[in-house]
């Protein structure tokens, strides 16, 4: 099953709802790839012995891994943490998440500053490039088990928007200028 993504509506209702634009505008995988988002679908039932996951980790240098269960029963200050994850931000490094159980949404900005909602479910491994504006929330199931992967020691420092002068944001924007000749601008 391929990952599902769509443009979001402008509603301020519960962030855990799908927020599909009307009319619905689905986003193909190649559009996500154009934004630098990388995706694989793997077997979450046997992640400890998965050769494809091992090959991805080796090829991309992901030498650190931990597991994270996100749900009200297992996370202190759950609602506050979810609110923090949903604050628009960038990172200096890639954000790599592999969904082992449950589901949730990564929202990313496209080149026109519109939100794209990416629904990740068990088996989805997603890589968000350094410097891309994004946020995360669970869906209405309120549960996800994620594998977090890192190059080197784990660093999860969010830099809340605006961050146009941050080196990773500048590099991200530069990659678009070099690839397709247009600039990404903050709105």
What is this entry, summarized?
By secondary structure, this protein is α+β, with helices and mostly antiparallel strands. It contains 4 helices and 10 strands; from the N terminus they run βαβαβαβββββββα. The C terminus is likely disordered.
Distance between the termini: 34 Å
* Overall pLDDT level: 92
Strand content: 25-35%
Oligomerization: single chain
Number of helices: 4
Question: Tally of extended strands?
Answer: 10
- Secondary structure class reads alpha+beta
Contiguous runs where pLDDT drops below 50 for at least 5 residues: 181-187
What spatial form do the alpha-carbon principal axes imply?
globular
**Helical content (DSSP H or I, runs of 4+):** 10-25%
Radius of gyration over all CA atoms, rounded: 16 Å
Q: Biggest β-sheet, characterized?
A: 8 strands, antiparallel
Would you list the SSEs in sequence order as H and E?
EHEHEHEEEEEEEH
Describe the structure.
By secondary structure, the protein is of the alpha+beta class. It is built from four helices and ten strands, in the order βαβαβαβββββββα. The chain has helices at residues 29-34, 51-60, 78-85, 167-180, and strands at 4-7, 38-41, 64-70, 89-90, 95-109, 115-121, 124-128, 134-138, 144-150, 159-160. The strands form two sheets. Strands 1, 2, 3, 5, 6, 7, 8 and 9 form an eight-stranded antiparallel beta sheet that branches. Strand 5 and strand 6 (115-121) form a beta hairpin.
Keywords, separated by commas or semicolons:
single chain; 187 residues; alpha+beta; eight-stranded antiparallel beta sheet; two-stranded antiparallel ribbon; globular; disordered C terminus
């Amino acid at each position: 099953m391929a990952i599902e993504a769509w443009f979001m509506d402008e509603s301020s209702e519960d962030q855990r709802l799908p927020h599909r634009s009307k009319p619905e505008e689905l986003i193909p995988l190649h559009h996500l790839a154009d934004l630098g988002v990388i995706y694989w679908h793997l077997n979450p039932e046997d992640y400890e012995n998965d050769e494809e996951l091992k090959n991805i980790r080796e090829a991309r240098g992901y030498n650190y891994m931990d597991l994270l269960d996100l749900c009200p029963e297992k996370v202190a200050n759950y609602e506050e943490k979810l609110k923090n994850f949903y604050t628009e931000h960038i990172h200096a490094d890639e954000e790599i998440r592999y969904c082992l159980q449950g589901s949730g949404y990564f929202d990313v900005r496209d080149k026109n500053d519109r939100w794209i909602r990416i629904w990740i479910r068990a088996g989805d491994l997603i890589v968000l490039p350094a410097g891309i504006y994004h946020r995360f929330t669970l869906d209405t199931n309120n549960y996800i088990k994620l594998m977090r992967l890192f190059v080197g020691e784990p660093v999860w420092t969010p830099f809340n928007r605006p961050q146009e002068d941050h080196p990773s944001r500048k590099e991200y924007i530069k990659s678009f200028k070099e690839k397709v000749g247009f600039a990404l601008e903050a709105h």
